[in-house]
Amino acid sequence: MDKLYSLSAKSMKELLEKREVSSVEITKSVIERIEKTDKDVCAYNSYNFENALKNAEAVDAKRAKGETLGALAGIPLAVKDNIHVKGLKTTCSSKMLENFVAPFNATVTDKLNASDAIIVGKTTMDEFAMGSSGESSKLAVAKNPWDTSRIPGGSSSGSAVTVAASQVPFAMGTDTGGSIRMPAAYTGVLGLKPTYGTVSRYGIIPLASSFDQAGPMARNVDDLAMLFGAVCGRDTKDAVTKNYTFDGYGDSVKGMKIGVPKEYYGEGVQPAVKERVFEAIETLKAQGAEIIDISLPSTEYALAAYYIICCAEAASNLGRYDGLRYGFRGSNTSNVEDLYLTTRSEGFGDEVKRRIMLGTCVLSSGYSDAYYKRAKLLQQNLAAEFTEAFKSCDVIITPSIALTAWKFGEKAGNPAEVYAADICTITLNIAGLPGMSVPCGFDSSNNMPVGFQIIGKKFRESDILTVAKCYENAVGGFAVKEF
Ligand code: GLN
Q1: Pick from 183, 186, 381: which is nearest to 299 by CA?
Q2: Which end of the chain has a smaller Cβ tally under 10 Å, C or N?
Q3: Could you tell me where the DSSP H helices lie in 195-261?
Q4: 3-state SS, residue 409
Q5: What residues have CB less than 8 Å from 370, skipping those under 6 apart?
Q6: Could you read off the pLDDT of 227-262 as tens digits, one per residue?
């Protein structure tokens, strides 16, 4: 069977269960596909082909013996390069960790292994997950499969790209302020940021620990749900995780109330994006959903609050890269202070340095009351507004991102504009809510994908997936880039 690589995870699973194909055959097909296409889209920092084939053989052998297999048995996938896979490098796309080999597995990786999935490689990202475009990577810089002169979005750039380019059916990303949902929207795939505390953060290199959450990316709702079900749940190694079991989803929005907050459709949102998102809302209305206008007034302060809290937490999380314990070490230094200075000056890129400086500033005495503490108050207000809004609706729909994918370098001189693009996604990380980006057509001016975001109540991923599934059925599935 040719083109095994392009199948959905669900179809792969069916064929494997019927023993019409083996995991080795699927994995070989995926490896060939990656070898053929990755020079064009650069989704990976490193490959894990040899182990992948060995693991596929082991799964096939288990199946032949009739042993019980996990939910993802024999299906290939990729994980973002900030998630530890023991024995493979975890680089965070940074010079600082370019040669760092993970000494243990993240819980997500343990869960993937327990479900017999086949990890084929580590996907590239913005350096330390700081960014929205993928351009801040210091290793591979992924390209958008729909137009390789354009950004794929970030920071889970490679995970989005490997799915969009049909190299693997699904992949794991992480999302601190939109890093799953933004690249999903830019590349025309689906991406879910689960409720904070749903997926363990253990073994994932932190950006802002109070926002970080790992989640799945896929080309259809069923695959996304399959991967989410395999990685979620309580973990004693991550105290914020909750006893959570994902209990599936439906496909009808009849009687569901969808809130539409006016603050998310302001001037900064490109007209083409607004049009497509409104069309998606109309589609859901035609399927029986009730549309309700709502307001989330604190949204205008969300960006400031996010970057203050994110940078503060990032600055302290990144304090560990001192050249002594692990990672890159500056050379020709004569004393410890010099070692810190050289290591951090040479090991980190500009975006990382900018955030460490901002974060250190907003936490310093004299400034912490004016910035950090006020940002934390705004966080409470925003969360309270969502709680209030959810009294009148089941889910909320917004654009996933205000723009469509731009050309590499186009916004290089203007980090503030790039930060501003995150406005639709960051509010969910601030409030700890789940959200998902779903493709909803294209911007006709550049033929790049547009995504809409479905926001749910805490731990109600099932509502989000129900809406997404209903939409997917109504539009007859999502476009896949032929490549
Ligand atoms: N663009 C956001 C930032 O740079 C998102 C980061 C993320 O979600 N990892 O902080």
Answers
A1: 381
A2: N
A3: 221-231
A4: coil
A5: none
A6: 999 999 999 999 999 998 898 999 999 999 999 999
Q: Which of helix, strand or coil describes residue 160?
A: helix
Nearest to 453, CA basis, from 277, 290, 292: 277
Cβ-proximal residues to 407 (8 Å cutoff; 6+ apart), any chain:
149, 150, 151
Catalytic site includes residue 444 = no
Q: What are phi and psi of 352, to 5 degrees?
A: -65, -45
Helical axes 9-17 vs 23-41, angle rounded to 10°:
160
Check pocket membership of 131 for ligand 1, CB cut-off 6 A: yes
- Tell how far the Cα of 178 is from the centroid of ligand 1, in angstroms: 6
Catalytic hit among 13, 80, 111, 469: 80
Distance 415 CA to ligand 1 centre (A): 12
- How far away, in angstroms, is 155 Cα from ligand 1 center? 6
Q: Is 0.90 surpassed by the pTM of this model? A: yes
Does residue 252 have an active-site annotation?
Answer: no
User: For the chain, what is the domain count?
Assistant: 1
The answer to whether residue 155 is catalytic is: yes
Query: Average pLDDT for residues 79-106, to the nearest whole number?
Result: 98
55 phi, psi to nearest 5 deg? -65, -40
Q: Report yes or no: 258 and 294 within 8 Å, Cβ to Cβ.
A: no
**pLDDT at residue 31, as a whole number:** 98
Q: Which atom of ligand 1 is nearest to the CA of 421?
A: 1
Rounded Cα gap, residues 405 and 448, in angstroms: 6
Question: Which residue segment(s) compose the domain that 75 sits in?
Answer: 1-483
Q: What is the CATH number of the domain that holds 183?
A: 3.90.1300.10
